[in-house]
Amino acid sequence: MLLQIPDVLTVEQVAHARRQLDAASWVDGRVTVGHQSALVKDNMQLPEDHPVAHELGGLILEALQRNTLFVSAALPLRVFPPLFNRYQGGHSFGNHVDNAIRQINGTAFRIRTDLSATLFLAEPDEYDGGELIVEDTYGVHSVKLPAGHVVLYPSTSLHHVRPVTRGARVASFFWIQSMLRDDGDRTLLFDLDTAIQRLTVDMPDHPAAVQLTAVYHNLLRRWAEL
Comparing C-alpha atoms, which of 77, 82, 176 is closest to residue 121? Predict the structure, then answer.
């Protein structure tokens, strides 16, 4: 499932993040990839231990916890601390699949990457190119979202970022270990949860809402890995 999640950050939060990031010192983006990805990655990245990365990462994690659409779709168990990248002057990232396991340098913290996410921090008209291209069983998807929006997709997907030929594409990226390992199971529960929410709004007293909610939680109880 590929899902666009609007307005994860407010306009004010995006502006604050950009002020911090525009004043920060960036390094070669290949510091956080494996051998294969290093061959196709060409961008800049904020160091993982940079104070700005810690501050803005915390801001993003708090926003995600409050976002009901993200929680419903991802069913997050663990979220890798958000990282930040910048593409400009022809930077791109060729076709790759994200590493299955991510570990924070110098710590024992590890997650299985079930879902990948990009939070856009530059408006689409600020730069040319820079589309995130995601391939899945339903075809090829091109994603270029307004600042503050997130795209969420399975980490098993082959994907790349097209060259940025004007301006700068600034974004945060991170991974999620879901309580449900299987994307099909997550999609099924997300669709069921969405239907329950609609039924609750349209027919708040309908007894089917309680029955379907029980089905949702019993399936989650059966499939969840904690």
Answer: 82
